[in-house]
Amino acid sequence: MPQFRLRRAVATLAALPLLALGAGQAVAAPAPQPPGAAHPAVAAGRVTAIEDQVARTLATALADSALRERVRTATAGSAGPAALTPLAAAAPGASARKLADTTARADREVAAAKGLGGDLGPLLRVQLADRTMRGALDGGAVPLVATAATDEHARTLRAYDTAGRVHVLETARVPERPVYLVDLDTARTLAAGIALLQREFGSQAPTGAQTAAPASATAAAGWWATKITSIQVADDEEPWFKGAAEMFALVTGFGLDGKVRVDSVAMPYLQYDGTLYRPNQILVNWSNYKYNLADVVLMEDDGDTNYLALAQAVAAVLLTIADQGAYIALVNAVLGALPTSWWTDDPDYVESWYTLARTSTGRLDGARGNGFMTVEPYFVQQF
């Protein structure tokens, strides 16, 4: 199965006492966690524990041959991952009812752990780990169940059988026995996370991060934008035991009022490394910015991202930066706000681009060397 994999950021970068911002500005790195925000490492551990519990419950429930057949059918062919809660709720039997109760509770707990409130609906999914396992599964083999690992360097993976026993699988090769993976519907969590980021940044509007342009910002005839015509992240190995990534970008600059502005842009299509995507997506609305330069930080939700902690950490740092009458690069401020765990354990930070201009066109390589995008100016005509 294709896999999105990212190179680790250099651990010492996160340990630097100061990251230069330019123009005499500096920001501490990493920023302390704001009050009330769940520590990302704790949140990530909680999500992993929830997924593991669901994997074991699903594995034991698959002792019921009728439920096993339902799951096999639901994940067959091009059906892709199946949401677990509705799948279990529609199946008869005590095992299915227990599974439905467990997954419904787990859906709420995962949403809370990611800072997204208590209920986003079905979040946990099941899918066959690799399409080469389909033949054995269709032939009657009883599958194991594991969680989609967040550590792409993992050498082993823990899976469960129908008796709840643990099996240790080597990640270097695809197992002969079929394996179901339990993971998150990150498209759903990403959409909710982007909405949360916008709300959190917007709540700082009187004194800091902006998300809504003044009414006078947009010219009657329309506005200039930067459009992504293509984008790709670095190629790497493709392990069988992980699902696709979900990406988003933070665009930063100074708003028309001279205060720092942050806009979050969802990129749910950007799932696999080594794949060139052609989204024709608007990245920057220049009518919202005072200067003709902005910065972009590309991030990944690999299942563990706590959006509330991210928004609060970034906003807390950017609030300290004042407009000095000239463009100031803000990428380092955003990176300095990222919690330490996002530099050392998890691939949440992907790439960054400095000084993206309204006139930028063509290929732009990322500062980290982990990806590139091609862009062009684009005028959005007003009706």
From TrEMBL:
It holds the Pfam family DUF3103. Keywords: Signal. Residues 1-28 form the signal peptide. This is DUF3103 domain-containing protein.
